[in-house]
Amino acid sequence: MSLKKYLTSRVFFGQVLAALAIIAVLGYLFMHWLTFTTDHGHEIAVPDLRKLTEEQVEDKLDQLDLDYELLDSVDFRGDYPKYSVVEQDPMPGTMVKVGRKVYIKINSSGFSSVRIPDLIDKTYREAVPTLKALGLEAGTVTYVPNLGKDMVLEMRYKGRNLKVGDRVLKASKIDLVLGDGKESYQEETPVDSTAAPKEEETTTTNEQK
Fold first, then answer.
1. Which of 60, 68, 99, 175 could share a disulfide with 139, CB 3.0–4.6 Å?
2. Tens-digit pLDDT profile for residues 40-92
3. Alpha carbon 4 to chain centroid distance?
4. Are 49 and 93 in contact (CB under 8 A)?
5. Per-residue pLDDT tens for 183-201?
6. Lowest mean pLDDT among 150-159, 166-175, 179-188
7. Cα-atom radius of gyration of the chain, to the nearest Å?
8. How far is CA 131 from CA 121, 126, 173, in A?
9. Contacts with 115 (C-beta within 8 Å, 6 or more apart), sequence order
10. CA geometry: angle at 120 spanning 116 and 123, to 5°?
11. What sign does the dihedral 114-120-121-124 (CA atoms) show?
């Protein structure tokens, strides 16, 4: 049989159809296998892990067939319990597949300490950003008579005076004593020491009489 007759014969068309059917079946089976291995279409909402301990995170994610990885600890935040989750990625509510890893950051055990900077003779506007950059806060402001208006004269913490280099915990409130821009004393009226008291003048006149 010539090639031309073979290509137009029923046998050839039958073999082509059989090959297409086999390819279709294999493709169908492959897609099912791919869906099974990747769990396509089955997603889970990431829970809110913030303020949970690492042990609680592990228990919660195990129930959802999710995993986690601890990245690092962050500077202590007073609005979160010690050793609790402060940040997570993906964020709560994000839809992920089974087995997805959630990355977390844990709150440290407490505030670290910082050294008091030299704020003496700086203005209040200069002092506040310096404190914030170190994780400190400006507390109560007290004014005293001094020509340096809004100039820092003293730094205090819980009633005690601070010196440059003293250590306090982060997030501490530093009270500042500022100058009010006024004289610290009143000028006295000058007295003419050469002028004789009036009483003495009267007494001398009477004696002469």
1. 175
2. 557 899 999 999 999 999 999 999 999 999 998 888 888 899 999 999 999 99
3. 79
4. no
5. 755 544 444 444 444 444 4
6. 179-188
7. 42
8. 15, 9, 9
9. 165, 166, 167
10. 110
11. positive
- Residue 169: phi and psi, rounded to 5, are -75, 150
Residue 40's pLDDT is 53
Does residue 140 contact residue 108 with C-beta atoms inside 8 Å? no
Pair 167, 203: CB distance under 8 Å: no
10 Å Cβ neighbour count for 100?
18
Strands 173-179 and 152-157: antiparallel
CB 64 within 8 A of CB 44: yes
Q: In angstroms, rounded to a whole number, what is the distance separating the alpha carbons of residues 169 and 62? A: 37
> For the chain, where are the E strands, in sequence order?
43-45, 67-74, 85-89, 95-97, 101-107, 113-115, 137-149, 152-157, 160-161, 167-169, 173-179
Q: Which residues contact 36 (CB under 8 A, 6 or more apart)?
A: none
- Cβ neighbours of residue 2 closer than 8 Å, sequence gap 6 or more: none
